[in-house]
Amino acid sequence: MIDSHAHLYLEEFDEDREAVIERARAAGIETIINIGIDVETSSQAIGMARGDDGFFASAGIHPQSPVADPQAALTAIRELIETNPEETVAVGEIGLDYYWDTVPPEAQSAILQPQLDLALELGLPVIFHCREAISTLLELLEARDSVPPGVFHCFEGGPLEAERGLALDFHISFAGNVTYKNAERLQQAAGTVPLDRLLLETDSPYLPPHPHRGKRNEPAYTTLTCDFLAGLMNLSPREVDEAATENTRRLFRLTE
Length: 256
Ligand SMILES: [Zn+2]
Prior knowledge:
Elements: E1 2-6, H1 17-26, E2 31-35, H2 39-49, E3 55-59, H3 70-83, E4 88-97, H4 105-122, E5 126-131, H5 134-142, E6 150-152, H6 159-167, E7 171-174, H7 184-192, E8 198-200, H8 222-233, H9 237-252
Parallel strand pairs: 1-2, 2-3, 3-4, 4-5, 5-6, 6-7, 7-8
Zinc ion (ZN) binds near residues 7 and 129.
């Protein structure tokens, strides 16, 4: 099983990072992709992947990461990717986030578009973060001449938005919040995603699946979301795991 989206470099894991990783291994999570949200954390994620074939990394500027000099930040992300090709498997997380307001919407699309171009140029997939902006993000993507392959991480839309994302050839990933009681629309969306487009993730330390809601999330809990999705799709957890693992390997071109 693969946790396709985690932030294990964050200080939430400083006290017991090794134990968290051990629990993940014990739960059968053989690969973890750590996702950068700015230049510094992208570099940290790459550092964790260096010399450890259980980890990969992505590099990118999150829509709510303030950047003083966008051009310099983009250049730094490009350099990180180009100098660490073995470790860096995607540009991300990138996208739109209208829930928080640290970075205004125009500045968000101004840093998103060149990162989509960068991914196309480097032949890498992208990882989308999207919060309260799914229609705008889909419109922005539909209006482009070309989009890189990629995944909507922690998908927040309903069945119609999922359909539009799938029509653009994207994958869809559900985090622990799909297991929450009030997540009916999300669960409906999950029911419409073909098995060959589904990814599993935790978004650790955020959004732990039931029954850990409100606490810190960790990669070992990927199994709980997998079990839940399997129930929703009338499949065995093993079928969901095998499909999601294969999809993740194919999308991010992970070497075994
Ligand atoms: Zn994330």
